[in-house]
Amino acid sequence: MDLQLLVLTAAVSFVLALLAGPLCIPLLQRLKFGQQVRGEGPQAHLKKAGTPTMGGIVILLAFTLAFAKFSVVNTEFYVVLTATLGFGLIGLLDDWIKIAKRRSMGLTSLQKLAGQLFFSAIVCALLIRSGHGTGLSIPGTSIVFDGGAGFYYPFIVIMLLAISNAVNFTDGVDGLLSSVSAPAFGAYALIAMQATQFPAALGSSAMAGAVLGFLVYNAHPAKVFMGDTGSLGIGGALGAVAILTKQELLFLLIGGVFVIEMLSVVLQVLSFKTRGKRIFKMSPIHHHYELSGWSEWRIVAVFFGVSLILAALGLYLGKGL
To answer: 20 to 30 A from 75, CA-CA: which of 119, 129, 250, 303?
Structure first.
């Protein structure tokens, strides 16, 4: 496999997302699949109520078609597909309940966790079947920690849950998640290519193209939101390619923006529960900047720039350059 195939996969996925947008957005509008906005969120977001959501279907459709077209079909192929579509299905159910019940909360935390654990278990079974190694590489070194299957598989289950939720937290400003995730998938595509992990490389390329195609309709002011359908699917895909490339820990750098978003939520909750004080005006941290006067365009531009730099550093450490 060469770079041309990665570019072709991304380009096809991008075009498919572009074509699917004008078909899906009017349909979502006719079905009245409008966004339910939380009252406790930024007041500026109240005007977004009613904007079509569940647009992540566009991303998952474009990704799946491009990935299935160009990838070899083996166990690793099913790992990427299971993590992406499985987590995306959980998000789809969550979005559907929000719309059907006309509320800002969908599945309960326990229901989401049960679904994530179910698909994570399938991913683990597929990895065991493929003879996937249980060592964890320390980025930038030749050190590999191998605690055996008893340590590794619980670790990657936690990792999949953490990444999918961190990515989900990042989806809160028009165009933010698509802009931030594209560099991360680009980095993992090149790392996977160098490691001859073809399904991970092509899956990353397909998802990069899909989120960029969706960005055309999701950039501020958004014509459609991806919903949890898209954000959880993107998170599942990122976790899968990080695992398949054996660069699990490198996600802390490549996906640094997602890590920061999740940490901002955790720190905010801990601070409020222990001290009764908030660290940020609102969490996740992109809302802090929004309430500090940053425009949505500025937030997306800055976070994209940070993501691009972190992806380049991760690419270097992962020997994808």
So the answer is: 250
The structure tokens 């998170």 sit at 235
3-state secondary structure the chain: CCHHHHHHHHHHHHHHHHHHHHHHHHHHHHCCCECCCCCCCCHHHHHHCCCECCCHHHHHHHHHHHHHHHCCCCHHHHHHHHHHHHHHHHHHHHHHHHHHHCCCCCCCHHHHHHHHHHHHHHHHHHHHHHCCCCEEECCCCCCEEECCHHHHHHHHHHHHHHHHHHHHHHCCCCCHHHHHHHHHHHHHHHHHHHCCCHHHHHHHHHHHHHHHHHHHHHCCCCCCCCHHHHHHHHHHHHHHHHHHCCCCCCHHHHCHHHHHHHHHHHHHHHHHHHHCCCCCCCCCHHHHHHHCCCCHHHHHHHHHHHHHHHHHHHHHHCCCC
Q: What is the mean pLDDT of residues 240-255?
A: 96
pLDDT at 29: 85
Q: For residues 204 and 195, give the distance between their C-alpha atoms in angstroms, rounded to a whole number.
A: 13
Residue 281 to residues 95, 235, 288, 303, Cα–Cα distance (Å): 27, 26, 5, 18
Residue 103's pLDDT band (cuts 50, 70, 90): low
Half-sphere exposure of 268 (CA within 13 A, CB side): 14
| Residues ≥6 apart with Cβ < 8 Å to 188 | 200, 201, 204, 238, 241, 242, 245, 247, 254
Instruction: Provide the mean pLDDT of the chain.
Output: 92
pLDDT reported for residue 40: 55
For the question of whether the overall pTM of this predicted structure is more than 0.90, the answer is: yes
Instruction: List, for residues 157-182, the tens digit of each pLDDT value.
Output: 999 999 999 999 999 899 999 999 99
Predicted local distance difference test score (pLDDT) of residue 104 = 66
**Residue 162, CA distances (Å) to 6, 169, 194, 252, 266 in order:** 27, 11, 26, 11, 12
CB neighbourhood size of 199 (10 A) = 24
